[in-house]
């Protein structure tokens, strides 16, 4: 196995409500076509809109791939930009999923912190991608919406000590095509990986000093 290759896992969500084809999964499939460069092994998964599946699937992805980064992508009917979520929240899950289930505790991890921030500086990613002239508007948000998007993000952040990201995309054609969204995901995730690598270099150089 080529050790210089990094595993990156990107998930989109399956159908729910009026989204018979979930734009997040369309965007992730477009990203898969584009790839993240020759030194990244990109693994993509479609996640059903079900709390219990997320509870088992997210840990299994971390175990199987030991990824450098996991990025979850979801659709937001209210979004008009590609939105980078800064944090996941533990409490307030009252919405029923596709199997009409909702956690009794209404939280992700009983006893977990209220809010977990990503280690990735989303403001910085947003600035860099915007400056690159991609033609897709990118913004940053602190509220992933307390449904399966937020639930998945919190679960991933908890397991990865913050080495996860969540990106909300608008519905297709409002205003972006699947291809546009795929290009945006590619640019955003590349910036995220650069930031992570810089942070790792910093940590490594500090360890060498002592």
Automatic annotation (TrEMBL):
One biological process term from GO is: proteolysis
The UniProt keyword set, sorted, is: Coiled coil, Cytoplasm, Hydrolase, Protease, Thiol protease
Q: Which PROSITE patterns match?
A: PYRASE_CYS (PS01334), PYRASE_GLU (PS01333)
Q: Which reaction does it catalyse?
A: Release of an N-terminal pyroglutamyl group from a polypeptide, the second amino acid generally not being Pro
EC annotation from Swiss-Prot or TrEMBL:
3.4.19.3
Gene3D superfamilies, sorted: Peptidase C15, pyroglutamyl peptidase I-like
User: Which Pfam families does the UniProt entry name for this protein?
Assistant: Peptidase_C15
Q: What class of enzyme is it?
A: hydrolase
Q: Per the record's keyword annotation, is Lyase included, yes or no? A: no
Chief localization = cytoplasm
Catalytic machinery residues: 85, 149
What SUPFAM superfamilies would the database entry show?
Answer: Pyrrolidone carboxyl peptidase (pyroglutamate aminopeptidase)
What role is this protein assigned? Removes 5-oxoproline from various penultimate amino acid residues except L-proline.
Question: Which family does the entry's similarity section mention?
Answer: Belongs to the peptidase C15 family.
Protein's name in the database: Pyroglutamyl-peptidase I
User: Which organism's genome codes for this protein?
Assistant: Oryzias latipes (Japanese rice fish)
């Amino acid at each position: 196995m080529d050790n210089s290759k990094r595993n990156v896992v990107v998930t989109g969500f399956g159908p729910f409500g009026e989204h018979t084809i979930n734009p997040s999964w369309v965007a992730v499939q477009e990203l898969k076509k584009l790839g993240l460069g020759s030194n990244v092994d990109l693994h993509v998964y479609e996640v059903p809109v079900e709390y219990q599946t997320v509870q088992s699937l997210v840990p299994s992805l971390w175990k199987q791939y030991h990824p450098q980064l996991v990025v979850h992508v979801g659709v937001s009917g209210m979004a008009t930009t590609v939105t980078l979520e800064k944090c996941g929240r533990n409490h307030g899950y009252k919405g029923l999923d596709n199997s009409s289930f909702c956690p009794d505790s209404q939280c992700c991890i009983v006893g977990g912190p209220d809010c977990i921030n990503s280690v990735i500086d989303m403001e910085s990613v947003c600035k860099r991608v915007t400056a690159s002239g991609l033609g897709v508007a990118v913004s940053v948000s602190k509220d992933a919406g307390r449904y399966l998007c937020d639930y998945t993000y919190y679960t991933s952040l908890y397991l990865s000590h913050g080495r996860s990201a969540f990106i909300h995309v608008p519905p297709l054609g409002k205003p972006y095509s699947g291809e546009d969204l795929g290009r945006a995901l590619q640019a955003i995730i590349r910036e995220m990986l650069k930031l992570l690598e810089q942070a790792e270099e910093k940590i490594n150089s500090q360890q060498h000093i002592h």
